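Data availability (excerpt). The following record was deposited with the supplementary files.
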Amino acid sequence: MDGIVTILKPPGMTSSNVVFDVRKIFQEKRAGHLGTLDPAAAGVLPVCLGRATRLFDILVDKDKEYVFECAFGTQTDTQDAYGAVIARDDRRVTESELRHILPEFLGGQMQAASIYSALKVDGRKMYDLARAGETIEPKVREICVHELELIEQTGENRFLLRAACSRGTYVRSLCESLAQRLGTIGYVPILLRTRSGPFTSECALTIAELETGKAEGRLMDTLTSCEEAMSFLPELRLPAERTIPTKNGLETHVRGLEDGLVRAYGESEFLGIGEIRKERFRLTIHLY
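Predicted structure:
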């Protein structure tokens, strides 16, 4: 059971509960998700199984994409629809006003994560601490928004947007920043992650669909192989005589490839992920 299954997480379910269910369905102890989705959010949550858990550090750093609704004129204590309303504002935002400021939020920037996020403080999730009434200092970190576009206006003071961004970007905080720039307040009633790295909503399955697949004997068909998941990396074909030394951790001299990670192949098999540095290759993640 080595591979990645892309789950379509429903709102109201924690990412940890998704992993628990997937582990139970596949009967695989080694399992972990590629980036937490807050309980209120829905969408793509890839879960690594078996040897695929060794790819976590590579895949978790990939960009994410979200479709979300910004509702201006209302503020909740959690920045989403699950919280209590704490303020209202009569300011009305127009489509042209919102479209005009979106380019200002592209590129690298510092962002304060919501205290109702899944980030951890001393091993405890921030949203658990916030709901318990504890005082929390918001965490500030660098993010990058690659794309930010207005899809349509969904109602008075409500707009549907799409964002492609780096790991660690909090859409609820982005919505709040947009509202502040427009001189008002806002929250995110709908948040859907449509892509996490190479995994998209088009290939995502619900837990119920996984259970059906298991009952019909086609559970393996739901997995993306480690090789396929890493297809965005360049390929390195090793000479037959270097397969055994590579598996034993020895380096191989290579030419014509830039430094960085590669997919490594022996004479007839996928070996795993390795790194090239100054024309020297070494296998770092064994997947054969």
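Summary of structural features: The chain has a mean pLDDT of 92.
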